[in-house]
């Protein structure tokens, strides 16, 4: 073995010490100079018996290069895998044609989960209302969305569009699990029939399959009615004291596109399923059922049940925060530990359902919807406090959040130091604007009291302005109605909204 000093014998004061022998060898070859380590000197190699450093250097170089190649290949494979995503619909998507921003939106949408409140067809295409305000429109041009993400960069799909188009395509592919689609920046597959062409005349069937409420849109833009299956579900659920149509026997899926004889409607051992099938497929059964439970009664029952669910949810939450006691009722919408995030989500979902059903059930039920909405707004306006304040079981927080994040008022209404999105849905307020002002007249005192409370609690300016506008609109309509009724004469009364033909609500 050569002495350690041998490798330095060619160094001069001006030279730089190479970090490794491999680097030294490579540097020498590039410069056309002898290897400073002396490894390319034949006489030195001859004198260094058993010194196999040239072989070692070559081996080290090859190992370094192999490692670099493996790292490059591994990085490339990871990048490819990150650009391929398989969704819940079963479809596999290739995102490699998207830029970085679009790929991030696609990943968020395709791996996320949203809820469609209602959908419908119109002369300009198809509209899909999602929970918490976003509305996606599919038409002849690229899909659009009302969310701020899309509005900040129109023409480039947001996460809502990527998610929705995945759900829709899953309904038209014969075998989604074996399908791979490359996506464009507008959210649509690069090589596929356009989704608006696939939806032509099929939206009602698609909505039925995905359990999305379907609205028929008239020429004047007014939405009306339910599908026959939705109507049957609505009637049958009306006999349940707590279950809403959206949650009633979700295993029961029937469409009028599939015909059945009365004998084929029989489901052995399941009378409810048999009646459901008969009502969907047999006109006489459907007509008799609707006579027994008219639309006005269904609407009144629906909004009463939503209001009761919300009342029970808040009572259960208050009790849980104070004592740690979980709801014992198995049908409670919040059974199990009730934590603030879950309660906020359920409150928003219920208000969105009321909002959607105002249009779905028009002209019925608006009085019940008004009562339910004002009641929930009143309850939240009175809860400007830490939900765990004064509890008896020693709970300091749910998941380490601060007191504002445990405050239902702060989470749902907000405070004046919050910058609300101008397009954001205002809790309850937007739904109240969907009601006829005349149906809010009896609630003016409560609305005024709510406004006073949230002014003291420093509600966001946008919220106060909208609530003030709602009150003025209601007061104006109420004054006009009073003036009109005075001219009609004392013997005439305006028919109750939503109860044509003299139908009166059954006592409860």
TrEMBL record:
MF (Gene Ontology): zinc ion binding
Keyword Transport: no
Domain of life: Eukaryota
Bias kind Polar residues: ranges: 13-27
Residue stretches of biased makeup (Acidic residues): 38-77
Location of region: Disordered: 1-85, 476-508
Keywords assigned by UniProt, alphabetized: Metal-binding, Zinc, Zinc-finger
Residue ranges of every copy of the SWIM-type domain listed in the record: 134-169
InterPro entries: Znf_SWIM (IPR007527)
PROSITE patterns per UniProt: ZF_SWIM (PS50966)
Biased composition (Low complexity): 476-485
Protein name as it appears in the record: SWIM-type domain-containing protein
